[in-house]
Amino acid sequence: MAFHIEDFAGVLGAAIMVEPTPPGPNSSSPFSSKDIVMNKKLLSLREHYDLQDRQGNYLGEADGNFFQLPAKFTVFDRNHSEVMHLEGKILSLRKRFNIKDSSGNELGVIRKKLMRLFGSEYWLERNSVEFMRIYGNFTEHDYQMAVNQVEVARVHKTWVSIRDQFNISITADIDPRVVIGSAIVIEHEEVTERRHR
Fold first, then answer.
1. How far apart are the first and last CA of the chain?
2. CA atoms of 159 and 147, how far apart (whole Å)
3. Alpha-carbon torsion (128, 132, 137, 142), positive or negative
4. Is 53 helix (H, G, I), strand (E, B) or coil?
5. Contacts for 81-88 with beta carbons within 8 Å, 24 or more apart?
6. Residue 143's domain spans which residues?
7. pTM
8. Could you give the CA distance from residue 102 to residue 76 in angstroms, rounded to a whole number?
């Protein structure tokens, strides 16, 4: 039987093709929307975020505290049931947050990499292995998240809003909890860093 090089390439491609991200949540998830608006309350001792879809439908909220050490956040769905929580680590050479589901299972660890010439960069680890890289202009709140160099989400701040408003666009099949959790951590870290300059 003849075996053409094209057939071999197809078999090889199928063998090495790896799903870059885990399956997304089912349709009943409060964060199943691909476009999420994260509104931050200003002038408050607490860090509070309201989560909506682009049509303004309430999806949930996140609560933290500026003065809690290490910083912690709890994210709730529209029924005020816990979806996940974020735990900062204070005794770390690099700043890090653990993202865990409501049962305490780890969804990822987000770390901040300091680069003298190019500002900063974040990445998310799973089982101590880099899974997602986060890069862009954090001062302007305009950045991307990528898995295997493929963009999976983008975050952009709306400056004309009365409140700080962040538009989150999920562009690939990835758990929205990881994206939302990362956006909350980055906003907290950037605001905290500016406060201590």
1. 71
2. 28
3. negative
4. strand
5. 83/30, 83/31, 83/177, 84/177, 84/181, 86/181, 86/184, 86/185
6. 43-195
7. 0.79
8. 9
Listed residue (145, 132, 167) closest to 54, CA to CA = 167
pLDDT in tens, 143-186: 999 999 999 999 999 866 567 899 999 999 999 999 999 999 99
Q: Which amino acid is at 67?
A: F
4: in domain: no
Q: Which domain CATH number covers 141?
A: 2.40.160.200
CA dihedral sign, ordered 56, 102, 171, 111: positive
Q: Which two tokens stand for residue 82?
A: 């816990």
User: How many domains does the chain contain in total?
Assistant: 1
Counting every residue, how long is the chain?
A: 197
Residue 153 in tokens: 């989400």
Query: Strand 72-77 vs strand 82-89: parallel, antiparallel, or unpaired?
Result: antiparallel
Task: Give CA–CA dist 142/197, Å, rounded.
Answer: 21
In single-letter form, the type of residue at position 26 comes to: N
Q: 123 CB contacts (<8 Å, ≥6 apart)? A: 110, 111, 113, 130, 131, 132, 133, 134
